[in-house]
Each structure stands twice: as C-alpha cells, then as structure tokens.
Amino acid sequence: MTIKSVILSGGSGTRLWPASRESYPKQLLPLTGENSLLQETALRLNGFGATDVDPRPIVVTNEEYRFIIAEQLRQIGARSPQIVLEPAGRNTAPALTLAAHVASEEGDPVLLVMPADHVVADVAAFQRGIAEGARLAADGALVTFGIVPEHPETGYGYIRAGDVRSGADTARSLLEFVEKPDAETARAYVDSGQYFWNSGIFMMKASVWLRAIAQCNAAMATACAEAAAGCQRDADFLRIDRTAFERCPSDSIDYAVMEHLPSAPELGAGVVVPLSAGWSDVGAWDALWAVSEKDEQGNSARGEVMFEASRNTLVHANNRLVAAIGCEDMVVVETPDAVMVAHKSRTQDVKKVVARLKAEGRSLAQSHRKVYRPWGWYDSIDSGERFQVKRIVVNPGAKLSLQMHHHRAEHWIVVRGTAEVTCGDKVFLLAENESTYIPLGRTHRLANPGRLPLEIIEVQSGGYLGEDDIVRFEDNYGRIGH
To answer: The MannoseP isomerase/GMP-like beta-helix domain covers which part of the protein (predicted)?
Structure first.
C-alpha cells in the first residue's frame, strides 16, 4: 500500500483579511510558525512509518497561485510535486476526481485528501489517525476524519457516527453529515458523544473514488475524465483541458459522494476515524488565536508587538511595531497597506469589510502591496498622479519577460547586485548605483545573471500605470497566452 497526498489549495480565505487576500490567500501565509499553512500540510506525513508514502504530492490549485505554490514546495524540499491547474473553480469533488486520475497513471494508491489551509498542532496524533484510516481505505472504505469536539461549535458542520467497528481501534461507521447547527443543537451534539466536527480530510483508494463519483454524478465523472485525458504538461504544472472541465458540475466531496454512503453501501463502506490532534480550519482570526501560543495573560503575538495591560488579544504585526494597551479580547492585524481592529466575537464580520471593498472596486480586497511573481517580487512603495515607485527583487538566474508598455516609461536604479538590461536592440550590465531609462513603447527586459538577489528601484511615469499595460514577447514562465 502506498499513500499519496492530495492537497486542495484553491480557497481565498477572505475572513483572514487583511493578511489573506484573493491573490495571496491564507494557505500561503505563515500564520502559526515559520512555514506557510501549505508547507505545513505538505510536511504533515514526514516521518510517517506505517506504510510507504509517495514523496510527490498532488496539489490542485488555480492559475494565479501556481508559481508561489511551486516555490513554497521547493523551499521545503518537496520532490517533483504534481501541480494540477484548474481553469475554473468547481469545488472539492472535481478537484479530487482530477487528482485521482493523475494518481491512477502510476497504480492505485490510497489518497490522503487535505485542505491546504488547516492547522494540526499534534502531528503525532494526526499520523496515528492516518495510519488507521489508511488500513481501512486499502480495504475499500471511504474514510473521513471526525474531529473530537472540544466545545459546542456553531461554525462547523458535524458528522454523526455509529459504534466502533468490529476489529477497529477507534473507527466508527458513518451515519450522517449534518449542517452547521445552532448553539442549543451543537451542545446536544457534543453531549451525545456521537457527533464530530467535519474536518474535510478524507482517505480512499483512487479507484474507489472514481467508481463512486461515476455512480453518484456521471456528468462530473465524464467531464473530469475528459479534462484529465487532455492534460498537457507546462514546466512544473499539469494543465487540464479547459473546455471539458468547464462543463463539469460544481460540488463538494461531502455532497457529491460521502453523504450518500449510509444509504448506498454498494459505493463502499463509509467510515469515520475520530481525530484529536489540535485541528483548526483557521476560519477566522478568533480561531487562529485559539490555536496560537499565548503568554500568561492569554495574548498571542506575531511580529514586533508590545502588550501593556492587555488580555486574550491577538496581534499580527507584519511591517512595524504595534503596541496594544488595555486591549481585551481584541484582534489587531497590521499590514503595509491596511490595519484591521476587531473584537474577537466579531471576527466573522471581516468578510463584510471585504465585500464593501469589492463593491467599491478597491484592490485592497484582491492583492497586497507586495506582489509575488515567478522571478521574485515587487512592492509598490509609493504612487501619485502619473507616477509609481516600486522596489523590485529578482531571484538569482531569473529574468522578467521581454515586454513593452504603451502608456508608461520607466527608470531603473540598481540598489544591490548586477542587472542585465535589454532595451531595444541593446543588452548591457548595470552595477550598484547605476541606472537606465526605458522609453515608452521600447521593448525591454530585466534579468539577474548573478548568484545573489538583484534589487532595483523602478520609477514609472505615464498616463496609465496598471499592471495590464504589458505586452509580452518572450517569457520563461509560460505566461504568454495564459
């Protein structure tokens, strides 16, 4: 038996704004440690000795996140990850179906399906649960993991489970999925001992899932099969057939298959493995405070933070010192372009702020001031009428696309490293403290031929400074036509 991780990484995490944005969502952020949530998910089976683990995870994501996901996986030493790009969002069931087709090309592994944006504090307990689930999945069961509830919670869906299965350690039969309850119902669920929080983590053989989805949703199965059959490799990425996938219905793993199992045993046995491993879906800032390390007053800090006469408060400082004085049950999140202050009981309302920003057409809901690209990143440090100033860092050996702008000219000043500049038909080097001018309409390119990061200051001037004023002629990262 071989276990293969399937990591679902398509969510936007808007309730963790302003740290999480649509173009750089929560799974890409280091919220609980040095690694991002995606990286922690990919590392969760390290040292797992119960059976073989394929070191090449399948990550299902979208076009926008592909380069930063590839870079984050490279940083933790993930070997040859299979990054599947969805051309459109269709929820988790189609994502898993695509992953099952990819996995089936090399056998019939047991798939461990994990959202990329969850926290698991006790990895050893998690791996013990996975070991039990893997044995059941290898025998043809469709396994879900039910989180042992620590308190009545109205923000999660629940799973009702039966008695412990014969011969199992803790696994129970799956009886029912139920929606998020009200407070009184949630209390009754927890008191009964029959209900678990729905973790969204699953295990099953690839063939078992493909058979089940074909019986439960033939249209989804057909669309995903055709989309996977038309898959094309693009550097580190697997591009599925867009036309076929856009015909696919949208549904979750729960609704598409798992909730049918109690009444359709021919699909396979539905099994719940109880899991008590410090799990959280980090759905809002108060949930992050609950799983974070705290001082004696219950305060949790990330970044440069000073607490004075404060209790049970979470502060995330990304760019500067934040001093919290006399705060109780508060959340403060500071980023270079936005600050959010909320009572812990109102953190779910962050999504209302994001909705207002979108309605007003403001980019603060979509992107950070600092934007990551496959070649490095840029930070828009100042802007005004007809000008914009960016700090640009290019990774060693990387280069931007050969491009041209219709509406702006650019000045480049090298702050650190050596730049290789293409401007029209000229190619030349710039050292630190040297600069050059790129006229409007001139074909140009910036590259880093050195072994250290290249840092420049770019001053743009012109009548329109939007990122869509780029005409690409050559690109090392497949962005022409995508």
So the answer is: 310-357
Please state, in angstroms and as integers, the Cα–Cα distance from residue 101 to each residue in 61, 111, 206, 208, 457, following that order. Answer: 15, 11, 8, 12, 46
Tokens of 57: 């995870």
The phi, psi pair for 33, rounded to 5°, reads -170, -160
DSSP state of 221: H
166-199 CB burial, b ≥16 within 10 A, e <16:
eeeebbbbbbbbeeebeeebbeebbeeebbbbbb
Domain residues of the chain, as ranges? 2-280, 285-358, 370-474
C-alpha 310: how far from chain center: 32
Cβ atoms of 172 and 163 closer than 8 Å: yes
Cβ neighbors of 35 (< 8 A, separation 6 or more) are 43, 76
With b for 16 or more beta-carbon neighbours within 10 A and e for fewer, the 2-40 pattern comes to: ebbbbbbbbbbbbbbbbbbbbbbbbbbbebbeebbbbbb
For the residues 405-422, what does the mean pLDDT come to? 97
The whole-number pLDDT of residue 100 equals: 98
Q: What pLDDT sits at residue 481? A: 54
Beta strands (DSSP E) in 337-465 are 338-343, 370-373, 376-384, 387-394, 402-404, 408-416, 419-423, 426-430, 435-438, 444-447, 454-462
**Residue 435 three-state SS:** strand
Whether 239 shows a pLDDT value over 90: the answer reads yes
Tokens of 53: 């683990």
Of 262, 265, 257, residue with least CA distance to 218: 257
Homologous superfamily in CATH for domain 370-474: Jelly Rolls (2.60.120.10)
Q: What is the CATH number of domain 2-280?
A: 3.90.550.10
The H-or-E segment that residue 52 falls in is: strand 52-53
Q: Per-residue pLDDT tens for 340-388?
A: 999 999 999 999 999 999 999 998 999 999 988 999 999 999 999 999 9
Q: What is the mean pLDDT of the chain?
A: 95
3-class state of residue 74 by DSSP: helix
Entry pTM: 0.91
Structural contact between residues 443 and 465, judged by C-beta atoms closer than 8 angstroms: no
